[in-house]
Amino acid sequence: MTILLVNGSPHAKGCTFTALDTVAKQLKKNGLKTKLIHIGSKPIRGCIACGKCAKTGRCTFDDDPANEVAAALAEAQGLVVGSPVYYAGPNASVCALLDRVFFRKNTQYAFKPAAAVVSCRRGGASASFDRLNKYFTISRMPVVASQYWNSVHGNSPAEVAQDKEGLQTMRTLADNMAWLVKCIAAGDAAGIPRPVPEPVEVTNFIR
Ligand SMILES: Cc1cc2nc3c(=O)[nH]c(=O)nc-3n(C[C@H](O)[C@H](O)[C@H](O)COP(=O)(O)O)c2cc1C
């Protein structure tokens, strides 16, 4: 079983990575594999609402990691998205990427446990955490809890290493993620049927 970790920071080995690496090490202790995708520091396009993904199953733009992340998520059993906090929200690049990863394709991700982790120097962690969780809760993905809202504090990996509570929150998250992924696999093996979605009603408040 593999958990996909997405590092949404431009820094490959920064604070967000330090949080995700703590999650990865604890997942490994629980017997799970991890796959890390770093979104990098090149431009990431926003969704242009062209609707091509509904026909082809892929985003029309192939010059950034959106299709790679979508394919890896379809294969994985769980997801952890990490982002630095920029102006009290997740950074723009990771939102641009996730808008495209999740648009029209989110039925593929149903029942994969997911979590967001955020890294900030001082403020805006819980607003960023809430924003990222929106991708999961519109996609039938069980959100994995920890002992606190999943954040670490620091402006450098060395500072994050001093955030003992933040790193413990990451380890607890990994333990809970591993437990839930294993429970879902055990349920499948025992023949407990997964919920069958109703045909989706789409209303927009216009009578
Ligand atoms: C454009 C920008 C905006 C930022 N906004 C915030 C903020 O609102 N609150 C905060 O605590 N830190 C803020 N920071 C600091 C980063 O969130 C923090 O250093 C983070 O841990 C960096 O993670 P990384 O090393 O993975 O990139 C900001 C940094 C940048 C570059």
Description:
- The chain is of the alpha/beta class and 207 residues long.
- The chain has a single domain (2-189), classed as Rossmann fold (3-Layer(aba) Sandwich), CATH 3.40.50.
- The chain contains 7 helices and 6 strands, in the order βαβααββαβαβαα.
- Strands 1, 2, 3, 4, 5 and 6 form a 6-stranded mixed sheet that branches.
- Helix 1 (15-29) crosses helix 7 and helix 3 packs across helix 4.
- The protein starts with a strand and ends in an 18-residue tail after the last helix.
- The model has no long low-confidence stretch (mean pLDDT 96).
- Flavin mononucleotide is lined by residues 9, 11, 14-16, 84-88, 119-124, 154-155.
SSE topology:
Blueprint: E1 2-7, H1 15-29, E2 33-38, H2 52-56, H3 66-75, E3 78-86, E4 89-90, H4 92-102, E5 114-120, H5 125-137, E6 151-153, H6 157-161, H7 164-189
Parallel strand pairs: 1-2, 1-3, 3-5, 5-6
Antiparallel strand pairs: 3-4
Helix pairs in contact: 1-7, 3-4
Flavin mononucleotide is lined by residues 9, 11, 14-16, 84-88, 119-124, 154-155.
